[in-house]
TrEMBL record:
GO biological process: methylation
Identification of the protein by name: Methyltransferase type 11
Methyltransferase type domain boundaries: 47-140
Keywords: Methyltransferase, Transferase
An annotated Gene Ontology molecular function: S-adenosylmethionine-dependent methyltransferase activity
Species name: Streptomyces caatingaensis
InterPro entries per record: Methyltransf_11 (IPR013216), SAM-dependent_MTases_sf (IPR029063), Thiol_S-MT (IPR052356)
Gene3D superfamilies reported in the protein's UniProt record: Vaccinia Virus protein VP39 (3.40.50.150)
């Protein structure tokens, strides 16, 4: 299987997301979702696709170290700045999800937050996450993906074949993160579906799923 290790560079999207991310946290309830996603974590954590570090303020004090992987240069610089202000030790490193530069079974937990939509090889990325987690380690996920009914799935697939990935840094709206996590050998525990933002407007990226999966012993 080929490993995609070439640099990721989406300067236009990175600049857009650097400004839009904090706005979504305030206005679309993402701050609460981040807090919920990270609650109860402890020990060593790897976060893949850390972006500009919007999750960093919500890591519990029981976390001894966060290795934050971010391939996009502008967002990685912003993440390094955010790491300085974080209440737990955060090491921001350049890498892609499909080739994590860390030892096997080195982490107690892994975090993906709006990441699997844009990785180049989802099975390979999830295989890497399983590799670096200790047996019994948790994968915390908050991802958007394919809608579960109506006409929106067809709209999502059409957008993914045309303009959406080009406009939004390689993002795909019609992937099924829950199915992919299960297919990668994780045992899926608690999870729920939700919409972001939660309101009358349904964006192609609104359908989301959040939960916990475990690397089997």
């Amino acid at each position: 299987m080929a490993v995609h290790s070439s640099p990721v560079h989406h300067p236009l999207f990175a600049r857009f997301y650097a400004k839009a991310g904090p706005v979504l946290d305030r206005r679309a309830g993402m701050a609460d979702r981040r807090r919920e996603l990270l609650a109860g974590l402890s020990g060593r954590v790897i976060e893949v696709g850390a972006g500009q570090g919007l999750n960093f303020p919500y890591y519990p004090r029981a976390v001894s170290e966060v290795v934050a992987v971010e391939p996009e240069r502008l967002l990685r610089r912003r993440a390094a700045q955010a790491a300085v202000r974080c209440g737990v030790p955060v090491d921001v490193v350049p890498a892609v999800a499909e080739a994590l530069p860390v030892k096997s079974e080195a982490f107690d937990a892994a975090v993906v937050s709006l990441v699997l939509c844009s990785v180049r090889d989802v099975p390979r990325a999830l295989a890497e996450l399983r590799r670096v987690l200790r047996p019994g380690g948790e994968l915390r996920f908050f991802e958007h993906g394919v809608a579960d009914g109506g006409v929106l799935p067809a709209v999502q697939r059409a957008l993914d074949r045309t303009v959406w990935p080009r406009l939004f840094g390689g993002c795909h709206t019609s992937r099924d993160p829950l199915a992919a996590i299960g297919a990668a050998g994780f045992a899926i525990g608690t999870w729920r579906r939700l919409r972001v933002p939660d309101g009358p407007v349904r964006l192609p990226s609104s359908p989301c799923v959040t939960g916990v999966a475990v690397r089997p012993e």
